[in-house]
From TrEMBL:
Record Pfam families: Heme_oxygenase
InterPro entries registered for this protein in UniProt: Haem_Oase, Haem_Oase-like, Haem_Oase-like_multi-hlx
GO terms, molecular function: heme binding; heme oxygenase (decyclizing) activity; metal ion binding
Keywords: Heme, Iron, Metal-binding
Gene3D superfamilies (alphabetical): Heme oxygenase-like
Organism: Bradyrhizobium oligotrophicum S58
GO biological process: heme catabolic process; heme oxidation; response to oxidative stress
Cited CDD domains: HemeO (cd19165)
Protein name: Heme oxygenase
Binding site for heme b: 2, 9, 113, 160
Lineage top rank: taxon: Bacteria
């Protein structure tokens, strides 16, 4: 999945609201819009993963300590942004995750890989930038906090191993790799839509 999505990963960091935040050009409103859009995405992902927790394949990567839904709700409440509109691109994204969870649920591996490893890696960089450029308190940045994970680098290594084991245990390996590319593209499209909605495009 890493090789297939390498170019898309670069694009994701260089476009849309994510690029604005990384460059220190975001606003509290644009950050809140991002959280609002991600909440139903994570709710869908975590519900589908839990539904397949007993699977000998998908179950290998179900880790409740990664769940972000509660943290997203807390951050939105802290920012007084719980009533922000949901962009159509976010709905497309969550529907794609629900579709990935149908049947065997194996394509969920691609979405977990894209979101959770991103949160554990680039998300930690964004957290520091947001704290500095938007003067956000820790209470508004819990999305990037993983209190149940004491050693993030080691956890990431273990999670990659679990993903590899899950990949080796399924037949539709190529399809899941392509699902990772779809997941990155969904993120890019949402990020670009959020940039425009926040008035930061151009």
């Amino acid at each position: 999945m890493r090789e297939r999505t390498k170019a898309l990963h670069v694009t994701a960091e260089r476009t849309g609201i994510v690029a604005e935040l990384l460059r220190g050009r975001g606003t509290v409103q644009s950050y809140a819009l991002l959280l609002r859009s991600l909440l139903p995405v994570y709710e869908a992902l975590e519900a589908e993963l839990e539904r397949h927790a007993a699977s000998p394949v998908t179950g290998l990567i179900v880790r409740p300590e990664l769940h972000r839904s509660a943290a997203l709700r807390a951050d939105l409440a802290q920012l007084d942004a719980t009533d922000l509109p949901l962009l159509p691109e976010a709905i497309v994204y969550l529907n794609a995750i629900r579709e990935a969870g149908s049947g065997s649920g194996h394509p969920l591996l691609a979405h977990a890989y894209t979101r959770y490893l991103g949160d554990l890696s680039g998300g930690q960089i964004i957290k520091k930038i947001l704290a500095r450029t938007l003067a956000l308190p820790p209470e508004a940045l819990s999305f990037y906090e993983f209190p149940e994970i004491s050693d993030i680098p080691r956890f990431k290594d273990d999670y990659r191993v679990a993903l590899e084991q899950a990949g080796a245990a399924m037949a539709e390996h190529d399809a899941v790799i392509e699902e990772a590319a779809i997941a990155f593209q969904l993120n890019i499209t949402l990020s670009q839509a959020l940039q425009q909605a926040a008035g930061l495009a151009g």
